[in-house]
Design a protein that fits this description.
Strand 2 and strand 3 form a beta hairpin. 60% of the residues lie in helices and 13% in strands. The radius of gyration is 20 Å and the shape is elongated. With 106 residues, it is of the alpha+beta class. The chain has a single domain, classed as Orthogonal Bundle (Arc Repressor Mutant, subunit A). A three-stranded antiparallel β-sheet has the order 1-3-2.
Length: 106
């Protein structure tokens, strides 16, 4: 069975979030991503593979270097989910506040 990857898997790992953060400033080659990360090139390559499979980055070959570019529009799915969840929980808390206020009056 082939595992389908999504944006939530991409952002679930702190190393992948760090890579996305670095790439949010513009395209970088793998050496630039590895720089100051404390992670080996091989380790970063594994995370880049996941990010690529999730559609969070695009990899292009430029000469001998692979250049990575963030596809931040993929994060819109997460933003939509967070906003919907926030709306739902705000409604639930308002109902709870109303219930508690009514209970207090009794």
């Amino acid at each position: 069975m082939i595992e389908r990857r999504d944006v939530y898997q991409a952002i679930a790992d702190p190393t992948r979030r760090m890579i996305i953060q670095k790439l949010s400033g513009g395209p970088l080659n793998i050496s630039q991503i590895v720089e100051n990360s404390g992670i080996t090139r091989q380790g970063i390559a594994k995370h880049l593979k996941v990010l690529n499979e999730c559609g969070m980055i695009a990899l292009t070959q430029k000469g001998r270097e692979q250049v990575c570019e963030a596809r931040l529009e993929q994060l819109d799915e997460v933003v939509d989910w967070v906003n919907a969840s926030r709306k739902l929980w705000n409604q639930r808390f308002k109902k709870l506040d109303k219930f508690l206020a009514e209970t207090k009056k009794q």
